[in-house]
DNA sequence: TCGGTTTTGTGAACGCATTCACAAATGGCT
DNA sequence: AGCCATTTGTGAATGCGTTCACAAAACCGA
């Protein structure tokens, strides 16, 4: 049922932390007891939390103090029950009959996403896209700052973009160490992506955002997220194609 | 406003079909083709098909004629059973004991994704990011071509980018009609996104790729996919935070 | 204090997606 | 031809995520 209202959050002190989680097929004999790791926030929820955070920030700016799950869900484009469940994962407390305190929710979500400290980002590849990313405002907001730009092209070294000087990719190890880089953004051509990725991993970077149209192979423990423009378009194309012909088995409209 | 739209693809769940109670999508072996509604390819599969296509194209260039599900899956970074199931959705035929013919597979996937014709894309917002997208090679490859650039800023009108002249966003209706725009790409600031989106929809564009950090509300029947850089970073941040502290409570100073 | 109204938090149902596991098909070899 | 090695295609099992539905709070007004 409900959790005991007395006291604050008191989740089971879920046992030990990160044991080696091998996602390899055919778990030979790992007795990695799946202890209901109840602290885990589902991946899908994490993505939405970021959306809620954005909406909440806007509400806060507008001076809104309280918001119901229904309102927030509508603004975020999700089902309200889904939103409540998402929030329940981070142990958030709303007030029944009232809603959620905007400020409290912002703080909680920021805490969950680790946005209280500012992570340093290194951007590798300042070509067409990388150049834009370096100056993209949305990047520097809340919790991140681009700390370094690198490129393999000698012609680009030394160029200044958004207040940063482009350094040779060979200096990546130094850059990561000196600037405490936590996230690597790959905006190189596809053929260079895997190599750069390995370089990042060797330097100890375990979070990578990949804009190159290539599948990256990484060891366990490294998180890669990819943004693939061509694929997004192709998915839209698929649906577009579907709209043209109503397929419905029967009723064949002779569409000129 | 009213009907919120989520990120990802928001598909009109047309209430057309009668309650298809087919609990068993069991393969009907009759050649009579009942209600072939099961032609639907799962959304998740569509995204992967695009990835397979890229890998297959590379293989084809290398002169590879045949590939097994195991090899292709490894190159695409997925489970081989998953890949085979994906392919089974598009009715692909491999050869048992041998594998798949690369050329045939490329053709089939392109057909499924509707990449045989070239869809015209209109890009609205040629600021930092839009500018880069206009010149981004990955965009124009295979099946798409940016046919028009538009912006609301008078200062940008007339500027030439990648061989195209920037036109005022007010001309969108004409542009869509004249150039037969199928996909709209929104690369405006967040505050303008919803307005531009509605303009696109009014013009009859039903496929939208949104780069603005805003939740778009669209009517049923319109597909929206979003690419949100800040959210990608925040997801990585979440996992990064996870790596640092072993699980346990959300906040160290938690209440009592 | 009490009943009415609102809204949260969550068990349970549901549906989609992934993975397993194996029969069926195919080609090669003797 | 017959057997063996290989690989597909897919039912079944499993897992994950979303949605439903409702009891449990919390506030309010009389």
| SSE pattern of chain A | HEHHEHEHHEEEHEHEEH
Major pleated sheet of chain A? 7 strands, mixed
End-to-end separation of chain A: 59 Å
Low-confidence stretches of chain A: 1-38, 247-256
Evaluate the radius of gyration of chain A: 23 Å
The residue-averaged pLDDT of chain A reads 83
Kindly state the percentage of residues in helix of chain A.
Answer: 25-40%
Tally of helical runs of chain A: 9
Kindly report the greatest chain-chain contact and the residue count on each side: A-B, 85 and 87 residues
Q: How many strand units of chain A?
A: 9
Q: Which band does the percent of strand residues of chain A land in? A: 15-25%
Major β-sheet strand ordering of chain A: 5-6-4-3-7-8-9
Structural class of the secondary structure composition of chain A? Answer: alpha/beta
Large-scale geometry of chain A: globular
What is the oligomeric state here? homodimer
Structure overview:
The structure is a homodimer of 256-residue chains. Chain A has nine helices and nine strands. With 256 residues, the first copy, chain A, is α/β, with parallel strands linked by helices. The radius of gyration of chain A is 23 Å and the shape is globular. In chain A, strand 5 (160-161) and strand 6 (164-168) form a beta hairpin. Chain A has helices at 43-61, 69-76, 80-89, 102-113, 128-135, 137-140, 172-179, 190-202, 229-244, and strands at 66-67, 100-101, 119-124, 144-151, 160-161, 164-168, 181-186, 207-210, 223-226. Chain A has a seven-stranded mixed sheet with strand order 5-6-4-3-7-8-9. Chain A has a two-stranded antiparallel ribbon with strand order 1-2. Chains A and B meet through helix 1, helix 2, helix 4, helix 5 and helix 6 of A and helix 1, helix 5, helix 6, strand 8 and helix 9 of B. The structure holds a DNA duplex (30 and 30 nucleotides).
